[in-house]
Amino acid sequence: MFRWLPIILMIGCCAAIAGQRTYYVSYRKDDELTHRIYLQGDTFGLEIKGGGLMPTTVSERKIRRISDDMFTLVESMEDCSGDKGVWIDRMAEYDFYGKTFRQEDSQLIDMSTDRPYVNEDTINSILGDFPLLIIHDGKRISWQTADSIHQKEGKRLKYATMSGEKAYKTFGPAGIKGAIIMKSKK
């Protein structure tokens, strides 16, 4: 029995790794809820963050591979991470039906509507513990540096915010959740 235990554990770990979900995030459009998508094997999922009394909801669809890097959504599979009676299908609201997706690599999924979904772990490693990109006088800075600049300059700073879509187009993947632009008055 004990001879087989390491082999059983290794097989279990490999199965767990093979079944891991890779999460992707994109900028939010007007009136969209906070969400992320994932790929797990031949399944595409949409996870919508819950709030208040609403639980986080998950809608899943099977994917059909057109080529190694292209796929579309096909068959319906429903799930809800909370009460089964609360499941809500929101795939259509996020404009996923009838679209072709290109999975360039493990970092990016691009829809035929040119809306990118970037690997969530990559975005978190770029932004650190603060979810928004911070730009001061044209340079990307950390949250701690921004706090220090605010303490020193105070009222001499001018602030603006940028939506995720515009920040992504301006600054690339680091701006996908939006940006705070700080400018020193001269």
Structural description of this entry:
By secondary structure, the chain is α+β, with helices and mostly antiparallel strands. It has two domains: 22-123; 128-184, no CATH class. Helices cover 22% and strands 37% of the residues. It has an eight-stranded antiparallel beta barrel. The chain has a four-stranded mixed beta sheet with strand order 10-9-12-11. A hairpin with a 2-residue loop joins strand 2 and strand 3 (43-48). The longest helix has 14 residues, at 5-18. The N and C termini lie far apart (75 Å). The model is unreliable at 1-18 and 79-88 (pLDDT under 50).
Helix content: 10-25%
Strand order of the largest sheet: 1-2-3-4-5-6-7-8
**Spans of at least 5 consecutive residues with low confidence:** 1-18, 79-88
Mean pLDDT: 80
List the helices and strands and how they pair.
Layout: H1 5-18, E1 22-25, E2 35-40, E3 43-48, E4 57-65, E5 70-80, E6 101-105, E7 108-111, E8 116-119, H2 120-127, E9 133-136, E10 139-141, H3 143-153, E11 157-162, H4 164-171, E12 179-184
Parallel strand pairs: 9-12
Antiparallel strand pairs: 1-2, 1-8, 2-3, 3-4, 4-5, 5-6, 6-7, 7-8, 9-10, 11-12
